[in-house]
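Predict the assembly for these two chains.
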Amino acid sequence: MTATAETFDTPEVTEDYLLKHRRGSRWMHWINFPLLGIMVWSGLRIYWANRAYSIGPIELFPGWFNEALGLERRLAKGMAFHFTFGWLFTLNGIAYGLYLWRTGGWRRLVPDRRHFQEAIAVVLHDFGLRKRAPVQGTYNAAQRVTYTAVILMGGLIVISGFAIYKPIQLSWLTSLLGGYEGARLIHFLTTMGFVAFFLIHLVQVGRAGWSNFASMITGYERKRRTSRD
Amino acid sequence: MTESSEDREARLRAEVEDAPAISADTYRGISRRSFLTAGAAVAGGMLGFYGLQKRPEIDNIPDITRRAHQLNERIWSATFREGHLAPTFAPSESSILRVNGRIGIRSEIDLDSWSLEVQAPDGSLIGTHTLAEIQALPKHEMIIEHKCVEGWSQITTWAGARFSDLQSWYPEHADTAYIAMETPGGDYYVGNDRATMDHPQTLLVYEMVGEPLDQEHGAPLRLATPLKYGIKQLKRIGVIRFTDEPPADYWAERGYDYYAAL
């Protein structure tokens, strides 16, 4: 009985949960998710009207792809949504950039030179090819490199988007990106980058477990027992 | 200035360890609230997006997105620079434009019997012109990149008279907000804003890549401007009307942006 009673005894209050993601980052992260989704969805409708890209003989997003998603033949609707939600995507991105800057949050995010080498070690560790992962902060080296790249890609996709949206009024911007066709290709490739990131991100979040996922909603993550996993 | 490896590691660990900490009890409350908020936000967002797609439509797209097009038009027309020219290209890059639309020009017409009608805002006929009269205006050539809403673009060479030169024949209507154009018979029709029509690269075209325009490219006279998508560049102009009201526009009625400016 004593033993049982002891387990019921509340041990001294320990502070087991540490703040990982601040409110602003959490909101902007989750707002970005559907916005990016809508941009890709409406962008695919626009792409459908002129499926210009292929890798060798492989046509990228052939007609059946859009048909399977029910996205064919509504170019006008695609453009309407793209040019409506593009502003929200842009504003959210600008707000996030300002937030990172004003809160100093960028210091926990932007990689230094060594993080680029360590990122390789992190990936090897993830694949079980390396015993120990490098010491990390809030984000590991691979996350720092990837997340920073994704933020820069956000800037690139907005800039290249404007370059193909207003190629005459913003002709200086369009020519900076290699002209209309060049800017369109950049816009497309960046989208592919986002989709690739999204898929990898899903897998990694799944691997990292519930506590990590929940921290993107609650802000707090349970203190890790081991030094680093 | 240079940070030692130990200092760097300590700084990185501190990012995690020095973060504000809370007890499991406090966490439970925060967690419950956060997940409730998240659930409400997801439900609200999904409902909102579903609702947006079910909104009443204005010209084939949900009203909110139509208003967004109009807001975009206000932004881009307010920042429009009159003297700003579209980039031009070398003759070697230019080619015969792909034919992409036949609405309003499906049947051939007798070019010799064609004439251009000009109408006042009330629709009354105020002028009729032959192609020779248009060709008597100063001829301008431009090698520009033509762009289609579908996403493709092609560099081509247009030659013709500036619309602004034709406008000088009608000084009393030089300030109307819009210019309407229709194919003979009225199957295809567009409205363009005054700033676009006054632009020096907005031409009434009768030649493409050094040859007289053929019928599928809009002979005898078509509109060409690098400032707008192809949907706004009417082929085979039958009627021009000066007006202050936004004219009916074929593709805008079918869901596209009325402004459609580049």
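Residues 1-6 of chain A have pLDDT under 50 and may be disordered. Chain A touches chain B through 50 residues (CB under 8 Å).
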